[in-house]
Amino acid sequence: MPLSDFTVKSRLRDYRVAFQEPGDYLPRLAAASESFFVVDENVWRLHKDGVLKPLCGLPVSVLPISEDLKSLESVRLLYDRIIEKTPKKNMRLVSIGGGITQDITGFAASTLYRGVNWTFIPTTLLAQADSCIGGKTSLNYKNYKNLVGTFYPPSEVCISSSFLPTLKEPDYLSGLGEMAKLAIIGGREPAEAFAGAAEKLLSRDQAALASFLREALEIKKGYIEEDEFDSGRRNILNFGHCFGHALESATDFAVPHGLAVVYGMLLANIVARRRGLLSPASEAFMRGRILLPVLGGRAWDARAGADAVVSNMRKDKKRTGNQLALVMALDDFKMLRVSDLEESEARTAIEELAGEGGGTAG
After folding, report:
1. 295, 71, 83: which is closest to 172 by C-alpha?
2. What is the CA radius of gyration of the chain?
3. Under CATH, which architecture does the 6-166 domain have?
4. Fold for domain 176-355?
């Protein structure tokens, strides 16, 4: 059964999220004379002779994509390519790729002419299930992750299953990691449903994947519509990110974002259990039924020592005091954000998880 479209409400502009295949929207976008396409290099290589064939001969900027290219310099290069095509205020940028392509294109769209229309076509599970809604654009600056950015939602989001079969396993699991996070944030019922469907999701069962992807977006939608500009309740969506971003930086981004978030949730749960806020039984449920299956037995990266991770946690842009920020899950699946995490607590959690092998079951 096709998934139903929905609208995300925004004080900047409401935008539609449509579940369509490329043949439903690419001809329309390709026929518009004001469209300028920005495509992830890998996506272009894999799909230029297939679903993206309608774009051949059109203004297309193919971008090499990696975490170290999510920068102001990449945006500047994109400006230059757009300017070469004599852009107009009524132009539309069409971003086709994952979250990094989204960030670069969204930031460019939010600043060019003080804002032009843009369409996002997410091609990774991570982007489809999480980052495609919310309106954030984020760029890295020097050694600081996501330090620079804007709030600027796309005009529309088109989600297509056609791009997912070509995802490599780590990228697919990365998307499942963010879906797992949203299931836990959603409460006991979504968390238990995700746990029950874990085997199907890991085997890429299309019906299960579509259902839980839609559920993840609905959960996130409730948070971003209530707190669009990240000043309060929306911070809960950073569950797993406080440790996760630091882990990414400590390993030079060898750990994919969604899997780093899974490690981050495991670490946050250790802190919560040690503080007496999360029972061993609840921690064991999340760990054994949801989080470890997504990690697929991956061992802890040796580069992610306590010193390296804590050093990067100090650079967290959401940090407001001398201590560290953390979002934790509680026994009733409520979430708690604190700003009093001691470095010693973080080190203890990291040493405990790393000592157990990180993602292994032993």
Report:
1. 295
2. 20
3. 3-Layer(aba) Sandwich (3.40)
4. Dehydroquinate synthase-like, alpha domain (1.20.1090)
| Helix residue spans in the chain (DSSP H) | 22-31, 41-47, 72-84, 99-111, 125-126, 169-186, 188-196, 198-202, 206-226, 241-250, 257-274, 280-285, 292-295, 306-313, 343-355
Given the structure tokens 């309106």, which residue do they identify? Answer: 135
Q: Are 239 and 184 in contact (CB under 8 A)?
A: yes
Closest CA to 158 of 201, 119, 129, 190: 119
pLDDT at 356: 77
**Residue 299: predicted pLDDT:** 85
Query: What are the domain boundaries of the chain?
Result: 6-166, 176-355
**Structure tokens that stand for 284 in this block:** 């064991």
Block means of pLDDT (10 residues each) for the chain, 362 residues, are 89 96 94 94 96 92 94 96 84 96 98 96 98 96 90 97 95 98 97 98 96 97 96 95 94 94 98 98 97 92 91 79 90 94 96 82 53
Given this model, what pLDDT does residue 1 score?
A: 58
What angle, 0 to 180 degrees and rounded to 10, lies between the N-to-C axes of helices 257-274 and 241-250?
130
Contact 328, 335 (CB under 8 A): yes
Whole-angstrom Cα distance, residue 106 to residue 117? 9
